[in-house]
Amino acid sequence: MVKLTGLKKIKTAVFISGTGSNLKNLIKFSKIKNSPISVNLIFSNTTKAEGLKFSNQFNIKKYISSFKGSKIAEEKILNLLKKNNIKFICLAGFMKVLSKSFIKKFSGKIVNIHPSLLPKYKGLDTHIKAIQNKDRVAGCTVHFVTAKLDSGKIILQKEVKISKKDNPTSLAKKVLKQEHKLYPASIKKIFS
Question: Cα separation of 52 and 60, whole Å?
Fold first, then answer.
């Protein structure tokens, strides 16, 4: 567990693979006075991640690595995190699985947001599964990252009602809206 020291914000890296809506939300959250974090680095495993544009928009360093030859890539990333004094990592739509040794080096300091009410629907296609199983509620979870996929200690969850009209796309939009509230609330909880 990372504890907040004085009034200094915890230097944070956000790992993305896609549009970066949670990244943008975390950046905005980091700018408010009582936020415990500052976003100092954006990392992506692909040059195609739309969220990388926020690097220029908010003047935040970015780093891209394809993760091919994973061990070497992870070593480079770990060195980069160390060089930038990163103490906390937020995974926000990051579509790669980090190795056990990477997670161990940042044990208790990596969190992820997942678009289901864990332990239900780990991995991909969460909204399709929720609709196919005729669930009444879906939602999102912020949890600590462990070596086991989507299995770390849950920090906070938020339920979203599934209506009869919902399809995977409309449900994804409803859940994403809640993700944007849940991630900052979870970070506040961790550092309180």
Answer: 10
